[in-house]
Amino acid sequence: MSENNTEGKPSKTLALIPLFLALGLIAGVFIGEKISEKGSYNSGTFSTDDSNPSKLVNIIEYIEKNYVDSVSKTQLIDNALESILADLDPHSSYSSPEETRASREQLQGSFQGIGIEFMILRDSLVVLDPILDGPSMRAGLKPGDRIIEVDGGVVTGDTLTNALVMGMLKGPGGTKVELKIARKSEPNPLSFQITRGRIPIESVVSDYMVDTKTGYVKVVRFAQSTAKDFNLALQRLENQGASQFVIDLRSNGGGFLSQAIAMSEEFLERNDLIVFTDGVHQSKEETFARRTGSYKDFPLAVLINESSASASEIVSGALQDHDRALIVGRRSFGKGLVQNELPLPDESSIRLTIARYYTPSGRCIQKPYGDDVAYNDDYENRYDSGELFSKDSIKYADTLKYYTAGNRVVYSGGGITPDLFEPLDTNYSIALLNRVSYSGLVRRFSFDKAELSRVRVKEKHPSANLFVESWSMTEAEWSSFVDEIRGEDIPFSELDLATSRNELELRLKGQIGKYIYGDEALYRAYNENDPMMKTALDNINKPLSSLE
Would you state the pLDDT for residue 392? Predict the structure, then answer.
């Protein structure tokens, strides 16, 4: 078949496609925004006084009055704002009222909706996961379902967008929404009436004891209550005997700066510098630890990857510069721009970059951007250069050299480079894994398996830990899953299947565990044989100076 690998690297054709999840109405997070958690935004001033019209206003009015076809003045203004801000830097942006509300809700801790993770795939709205115990799960939606109608309106086609979907699925709690679903196992569409409700947005999604002394905490975003939830997780683990921690910030895109600062404080001395910002029109502003952390003497490892951004980089950078934690993984994203949000009268907003973030040693977190830099192709460039497979492929100039508190060399130039590098796994076909994942098959198969065997599995494996330790797929179950892959018309070779079996079984085990026990089983399963986790555990107690 078509995905044989002859060069030792996985195919990047599908490896480079980002997977955007949205919990019923959200499609991303504020990354590094300087905003208040009470919803009070640093708005500056905005005037709609047209007594002295600008060139832009004159042009828009001229177009509106003279263009050959009818045009929307509002749309012209929106388009102009988008273009102006996009030309400044990669993170200054204009957001519509709907996008602004969705972005804010992402960090508020909850929202009102139907409770699904979804993606738009080939012009169709696909359910990736109904949120555990949420309205959609209670109504009977399953992973892999395709939503074809919402309240009688068709939701397929090339005009389908995340914003459009969010607008249809969100709404006040208690209101109802009618869905029509296409399900592969059913010959005819299914109809569901779902009552919208409160959907929590978790940021600390898993904490458990890896062994008798190591506590693990997974943080997926820095939301309004992250620091509080993180501290509670540390306390739970300490009460279970934890004397060292592994903090997993992989693929954490950021969030509230204040939450990143509070998290860092748990492991630092009072008055340790955590981060500073500086800009042409913004004076240098330093942020110090306000107290000595409760866990300042606990051995610590932090896991990062190429999708760890902004607030994640502030935490890992501060702990690295103070020689406080072992950083393991791959170079982080490199998002170190500070945005202020300016609300506009129609509830839209602009986010303007006003400064850059710097780690305590003086490193700039932001990676390069500009006309000569393919900013949005950074992942592909890292792949092509070999950086995801070898630390030696990361090139730094001596002028970018900085020093930690313990006089270890660290580099600026974009992102946080880990103390110990862990390459991207090449032991399976990424193309096959992604095709299977994007089809929704892993989640759908796991969901059905969990529903059919929940009682029996829980009787045999009373806890998530026991499930992960002793549950495994039977040959019959594996054969059934392979038949499902073939039924999806997913191309693969027998070599692809053989090399990817362990990874596919791991993902199935994690998802089945999640549907029965919750997120603890998911992350326990994923971490069980994770090379990055193993590297962290093997080196967490070694002197950092010995790892250079």
Answer: 76
Cα separation of 7 and 24, whole Å?
A: 40
Predicted confidence at residue 372, as pLDDT, reads: 62
How far apart, in Å, are the Cα atoms of 262 and each of 268, 296, 307, 384? Answer: 10, 13, 22, 37
Axis crossing angle, helix 257-265 with helix 311-321, rounded to the nearest 10: 30
First-to-final CA distance of the chain: 44
Superfamily of 110-200 according to CATH: PDZ domain (2.30.42.10)
Catalytic residues: 310, 321, 335
CA–CA dist 79, 85 (Å, integer): 10
Cα(498)–Cα(476) distance, rounded to whole angstroms?
16
**Low-confidence spans in the chain with pLDDT less than 70:** 1-53, 106-107, 109, 372-373, 396-399, 548
223 three-class SS: coil
pLDDT computed for residue 3 by the predictor: 37
Domain boundaries, the chain: 110-200, 204-422, 430-533
The whole-number pLDDT of residue 375 equals 82
Candidates 286, 359, 291, 366; CA nearest to 320 is 359
Could you tell me if 95 and 7 are in contact, meaning their C-beta atoms sit under 8 angstroms apart? Answer: no
CA–CA dist 12, 199 (Å, integer)? 35
Single pTM value for the model: 0.83
Residue 80 near residue 94, CB atoms below 8 Å: no
List Cα–Cα distances, 478 to 160, 433, 496, in angstroms. Answer: 35, 15, 15
The tokens describing 519, both together, are 């997120």
**Helices 162-169 and 97-106 meet at what angle, rounded to 10?**
70
Answer whether 395's CB lies under 8 Å from 353's CB: no
CA-based nearest residue to 311, from 28, 90, 32: 32
Residue 87 has what pLDDT? 92
* Contact (CB, 8 A) for 99 and 347: no
Type of residue numbered 29: V
* 204-422 CATH choice from 3.90.226.10, 3.40.47.10, 3.40.50.300, 3.40.50.2300: 3.90.226.10
Closest to 238 in 3D by CA, of 298, 162, 181, 280? 298
Beta bridge partners of residue 6, listed in sequence order: none
Would you state the pLDDT for residue 274?
99
Sole residue written with tokens 């969100």 = 170
- Amino acid 253: pLDDT: 94
DSSP string, 350-406: EEEEEEEEE-TT--B-PPP-STTS-GGGHHHHHHHHTTTT-GGG----GGGEEE-TT
Give the C-alpha separation, 350 to 100, whole Å: 9
